[in-house]
Amino acid sequence: MQISSRFTVALHIFTCVDTFKDEHKVTSDFLAASINTNPVIIRKILTQLKNAGLINVIRGTGGIELTRDLKDITFYDVYQAIEPLEDGNLFRFHESPNPECPVGRNIHSLLDDKLKDIQEAMESEMKKYTLNDLRSGMQELLAKEA
């Protein structure tokens, strides 16, 4: 299973908002130019972030503002907003393994706990990183370029 590019696009959005907030009105068109994608895609992601309570969007050319400090928004928060999980499970299990087959009737017992542990480990790692880490990293990269 692969997490869609919407997650990294959302992180790109937050980085742009923070980097350019004092210099530009950060709009969906502005973001689309940085990300090199269609503004409609950006607006859909902004809607998801807004619905999750992570940003406010000011209509027209007003721009975007964060609802919390960067240190208070984790990668996991963004992931939850952008990649909602079906039934809370990262891994989708095939519906009806054959109960007449020894593997089919035991596959859930074999895999369920392992897959849950993998998901919990990934989510735990995502909770370690905040948008403030992106700010620090971007500032370091831009300083090297100067």
UniProtKB/TrEMBL annotation:
It comes from Butyrivibrio proteoclasticus. Pfam families: Rrf2. One of its GO terms (molecular function) is DNA-binding transcription factor activity. PROSITE patterns: HTH_RRF2_2. This is Rrf2 family protein. It comes from the Bacteria. Gene3D superfamilies: Winged helix-like DNA-binding domain superfamily/Winged helix DNA-binding domain. InterPro entries: Tscrpt_reg_Rrf2, WH-like_DNA-bd_sf, WH_DNA-bd_sf. One of its GO terms (cellular component) is cytosol. SUPFAM superfamilies: Winged helix' DNA-binding domain.
